[in-house]
Specification:
Elements (H helix, E strand, L loop, with lengths): L1 H28 L4 H6 L5 H11 L5 H14 L13 H36 L4 H15 L2 H15 L11 H30 L3 H8 L4 H31 L1 H6 L5 H10 L3 H29 L1 H7 L1
């Protein structure tokens, strides 16, 4: 198991450098002058040129990327913000807890709602409950996050006054953002649970367990669900990794200071080091989430654990 973990961590190195190169190149060819944005439109051209030289923006692409790579490898430094002059890692770590809290809440809500609904839909296939659940799942997948978020604010904050429309520090403030962000994940996990359970409950060992007189609850929750968890865990892990970097609209709508909102503001200000560091941080987080999902497989399925050995 330890060798497998170390091998996966080593495999992160080319991923990190690939992401760094692509993001660095895209920002390099993006129109806009960070020095001009920092100094303002009224600043003299001499001051802009001097600032560009200080920031190293006059150097060729190879020199700029080489300097960035050297600092990343040798100094473990991903740069300083052009705007705040603070290290990028500090800027990211200040807002990452908000994004982590929001994403974890959305995924937890998706699991709590999606798995039971998927199980019941599979057991009662083609019933009214199954039809309504699948219709609601289709609606959940189709609804844009920003549209759902605005509707939730209008209903529960403006008209009813039950929940706050912004913030993330309290439990009631996290309800609306978690629902808005987790709606698509709920639909996806519900459909995946239903599909996986339908495949499992038709297996011979499920009929054998029933023929032995096992309670239906034990047959479904222990035998069927236990063997149907692998694709559910995969989808949940992918959704969690996606939400870590894809909560931009939710964070903007509900005024949550997370990584997505930080990157949007940095793109507007042409604060390239923060954008590069944010994308790199999200890529590493996504890879670590995938590693955690692979390790969870071993605890769910003993056959996979024996392969690690």
């Amino acid at each position: 198991m330890l060798k497998y973990i170390m091998r996966r961590i080593v495999m992160l190195i080319p991923v990190i450098f690939g992401v760094a190169f692509i993001v660095f190149f895209l920002l390099y060819i993006t129109p806009g002058d960070p020095a001009r944005i920092i100094l303002g439109d009224q600043a003299p051209e001499e001051a802009v040129l001097e600032l560009r030289s200080e920031m190293g923006l006059d150097d060729p692409f190879i020199v700029q990327f080489g300097t960035y790579t050297y600092n990343l490898i040798v100094k473990q430094d991903i740069g300083k913000s052009y705007v705040t002059k603070r290290p990028v890692i500090e800027e990211i770590l200040n807002v990452f807890p908000a994004t982590l809290k929001l994403s974890a809440s959305a995924v937890a809500l998706a699991l709590v709602v999606g798995i039971p609904f998927g199980i019941i839909s599979a057991i009662k296939q083609y019933s009214i409950f199954d039809s309504i659940t699948m219709m609601m799942a289709l609606v959940g997948i189709s609804m844009p996050v920003f549209w759902l978020g605005l509707l939730l604010i209008l209903l529960f904050s403006v008209h009813l006054g039950w929940l706050p429309s912004s913030g993330y520090t309290t439990l009631d403030a996290m309800i609306l953002p978690a629902i808005a962000l987790g709606a698509q994940s709920i639909a996806i996990i519900t459909r995946m649970t239903r599909s996986s359970m339908l495949e499992v409950i038709r297996m011979d060992y499920i009929r054998t367990a029933r023929s032995k007189g096992q309670l239906e609850k034990i047959v479904i929750l222990k035998h069927a669900l236990g063997n149907a968890l692998i694709p559910i865990i995969t989808i949940a892990g992918l959704q969690f990794g996606r939400l870590l970097g894809g909560a931009v609209l939710t964070e903007s709508i509900f005024s949550i200071p997370g990584i997505g909102r930080l990157m949007v503001e940095s793109i507007k200000m042409r604060d390239y080091p923060v954008v590069q560091g944010g994308v790199l941080f999200v890529a590493i987080s996504f890879s670590l989430v995938n590693l955690l999902v692979d390790l969870l497989y071993a605890y769910v399925d003993p056959r996979i654990k024996s392969q690690y050995k």
